[in-house]
Amino acid sequence: MDSRTLSHLRALEAESIHIMREVVAEFAKPVMMYSIGKDSSVMVRLAQKAFYPGKLPFPLLHIDTTYEFQEMIEFRDQFVKELDAELIVHTNTKAIEEGANPFKLGTIKCCALLRTRALLDALEAGGYDAAFGGARRDEEKSRSKERVFSFRDKFGQWDPKTQRPEMWSLYNSKVDKGESIRVFPLSNWTEMDVWSYIDLENIPIVPLYFAKEREMVVRDNQIIPLEHDMPFAPGEKPQMVMSRMRSLGCTYCTGAIASDAATMPEIITELVQFRRSERENRIIDHDQEGSMELKKREGYF
Amino acid sequence: MSESQLLRFSTAGSVDDGKSTLIGRLLFEAKGVYEDQMAALQKSTLNRSTGPIDFSLLTDGLRAEREQGITIDVAYRYFATPQRKFIIADTPGHEQYTRNMATGASTADLAIVLIDARKGVLPQSRRHAYIASLLGIPYIAVAVNKMDLVEFSETVFNQIRADFSAYAAEIGLRNLTYFPISALDGDNIVEPSARTPWFTGTPLLAHLESVPVAEDRNFEELRFPVQYVIRPTLDFRGYAGQLAAGILRPGDEVMSLPAGRITRVKELPSFDGPLTEAFSPMSITVVLEDEIDLSRGDMLVDPNHVPHVSRRFAAKLVWMLDEAGGPGRPYLLKHATQTVTAEIRRIRHRVDINTLENVPAEQLELNEIAAVIMETRRPLYFDAYAKNRAMGGFILIDPITNLTVAAGMIEESTPDLVEPLQLRNLEFTGESSEAADETQLTNAERFARAGHYPATVWLTARRGVAYLLERRLFDLGCQVHVLADDSESHLLPELSRVLSNAGLIAICSIASPDAAESDRAAGFAALNRFLEVPAKELPSRDDDAVEVLVKRLEDLGVLRRKDRFERGEGI
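YS: structure for the whole thing
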């Protein structure tokens, strides 16, 4: 390879850093969505590089559904402390007080209240005109056509039919008051790129990504963690399963996968052999055909 | 894996010519399709053309599109082989989707042009090729598909190759490679096909894995648009941006635009430690030796190879909005890291994408392509698009609706733009000279030759100072000339304009204050470099007055720094 050709990871890195700087230069009040997952860890590292030696010029925003793994929250607090970044945690407390939970409402309604609604409220409360998200186009079909700068109307909604064309790396950042954009610096990354970059850069991630014996319920080929008093179906019993999380979210809605991959190289090897896409273990995306697109139209990340 | 390269390619075509099948095939062969996605396809509730696996369903994303059975927007797809990671910009091929095709082509290193072997070169393939050429895609892979339906005929393949090559020559398309394939059966995709023994080329995927990437990169001429200023403390000022061209190392001499100041790179700090070298397209941070104040939109360039600096230029536009537009309306123009008010001064002609004929046009409709003259409120620093995509591409934004209305590609200056300079009856524009913008030379080039920027100095009363300043500047190596004519002083602004356009420093000396004339001269001064110091603010000793004026010219960025002149490095 020519010594002046960037590897694909460094080319993606340069593109993502360019996107982040463009947003900070052109928007009044950006915020970075922080989901605690591996993609968020990568986003934060890219932001550190983009603004070095300065600190992150925007706060991190975590939408806490209260149904996420305890290990995630512990990781978050430690990570943010070491980073010396500003963290904003927002919860739809009203819905939770009224008893919203996935067991009772089903995943679609629960997600609408605890994630989408909470997110829109938090963005409005903060007056943010740009919000970084870690979504990638390889995750799901409806994402493959979404722009890097994804325009949202006054209600935070996405209209796939009126997306602005995106030429070269010239992003149109003009919005009126009350409107905003979602920005996806990892648009062109794949799951493999994210893992390879975490390995290359030695980026800290939540231990749940690494395989270990965990107490689980196995239901319809899904391996479901036990946290948050998940109700058992008749005849179900918890069992120890050597498993790991491929993506993170609320405990009930994030299925684990059976895996022995306990180190970074093992995860990457597993991924090469893997024949299933990462969101498959996310129960929400399988609720109905095109469910992610419907959620996104309503304002979900 | 972490050392593989990135290749971006675009595809265009309709459902019929097997484009989606080809992409599905590439994803499948490279294991870019997951089992659950395959399973979801097989259980998909939407019924269309059936076969064992309908690969095309993999690439049609949105509900509305799946229902209509056509791809209506750019979709991005990813796959990797041990050699490379690939980004596919998958775009629809219908005429009304020129916009999407151009979007997908804008970042592509290579385009796959699909041709149905049964139908030969259709208008759609020609459109795609034309857009590939317009958007400057360096490599073209022509995939003659459905060879299985023409019994893998070498004659058919050769005829299509001859037809397409003739068209490609007409539009100046280079680096073409042809492949006889069957996307459905997999012939010549990954392995050489036994059914085309006459074909001696490599399979398509092997070509994608080996074609040189980013051939068009320019490492010679530094172009660093300042994107953002990093100032965490009072002692640190870093200029952040992505290198559009060139290489930077600590110690390198750079020129800032628009000021024209020369300084050196002090260091290239990064999260991973200081860099010893950075090259395009890295995103970096630059700290300069001298405290010069740059902001977003400014640019650092190679002092020996400066870009064009102009408010007027010729460009090709692709109209992207369903509402027509054209001359006489204000737009925002975003180029590199600068956004300026602009207008389409004139539509030279529209290009009929099917016949390649130039057609007169008053305004532009969705998906139309035109050659135009653009004018901006402030100068842009640019290179021709054909030379550097990042330095020659721009978008137009409607300032009312905020929508992106057009994409533009700046062309080399064209001779028919030259308009005669009128000395009489010039309107005061408050901007630098317009007619001079059509020259092939730029002020920055003149600067590089002369060692200073053009300027106009307006002096009242002190004629002796004017001539002493001329002597002093001349001794510093400047090209300078005094204009003094008390009886025809109304001519001085026009004359100073001619001198400043020629790259000289014009010293206008008049007997008594005349605000109207000095305003006119200020409006004509190239790059707005105009210096007027009221007589009462100048020291009474002539020598001291000259030193004050030299200092003020330095502050204006007209002169290189004094110590450089004294070290003999000035010119």
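YS: worth flagging: DSSP finds nine helices and ten strands in chain A.
IM: good catch. Also Chain A touches chain B through 65 residues (CB under 8 Å).
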